[in-house]
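EI: anyone free to look at a 131-residue chain?
SC: sure, send it
EI:
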Amino acid sequence: MAITITAQSGEPLPTGEYRVELTAIELSNGQYGEQLKWTFSVPDKGRNLVAYSTFSASLASKCMRWAGALLNRPVQAGEQVDFEALVGKTAVAVVLRKRKEDGSEYNAVDDLLPLRTATAGEPAEEGDPFE
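SC: here you go
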């Protein structure tokens, strides 16, 4: 099997909302203990983004909110979430362009939102890339 990688520009994306696909999720040990490492692709930009969250069962936790965004509905109390089953699902990432002390810039995923859908009686916005 060939091992390939597509080279990416080091230039961070502008702050904004981007349609993303979860391509990988894994448990990792970081400076704050056990956490989830989320890898998203931004198909329209040919880029990948990596973000981290706590591994918490609280409905208010980032990992449960993000799981809900990928499921396109809130996670309910008592519901068991299979995070690996979220791979391949899409959502909207709120991406920030931040600056480090040394002046270099990077992207941070600030939040994950469900894909927008038109509600009954409400037309989808024309040109909305997240339909």
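EI: The mean pLDDT is 88.
SC: 👍
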